[in-house]
């Protein structure tokens, strides 16, 4: 996280991030949440971490139909629900 001033003029909370190089990969970990991500560059690892922490904090979004198709998922068969599928109960 940075110390950029947000849209409401407040500083974002301070966060400790551990960034290490492991072979060909950079690994970034948000110490407050324990969320970890990686990338081929430091910048990519940090950008991926930002996205992962946002998802962890519930700031994610539903995938678009195009994104689902790119993952070979039929959008018509992809339904959200309150309960787990039978296989996971």
From TrEMBL:
Pfam families (UniProt xref): DUF7387 (PF24113)
Keyword Ligase found: no
Biased composition (Basic and acidic residues): 59-72
SUPFAM superfamilies linked to this entry: TTHA1013/TTHA0281-like
Keywords: Plasmid
Signal peptide location: none
InterPro entries: DUF7387, TTHA1013/TTHA0281-like
Source species of the chain: Halostagnicola larsenii XH-48
Transmembrane annotation, as ranges: none
Name under which the protein is recorded: HicB-like antitoxin of toxin-antitoxin system domain-containing protein
Keyword NAD attached: no
Region (Disordered): 55-89
């Amino acid at each position: 996280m940075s110390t950029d001033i947000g849209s409401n003029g407040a500083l974002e909370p301070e966060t400790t991030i551990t960034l290490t190089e492991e072979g060909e990969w950079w690994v970034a970990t948000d110490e407050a949440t324990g969320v970890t991500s990686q990338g081929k560059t430091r910048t990519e690892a940090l950008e991926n971490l930002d996205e992962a922490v946002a998802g962890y904090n519930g700031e994610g979004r539903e995938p678009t139909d195009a994104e689902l198709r790119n993952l070979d998922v039929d959008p018509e068969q992809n339904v959200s629900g309150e309960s787990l599928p039978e296989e996971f109960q």
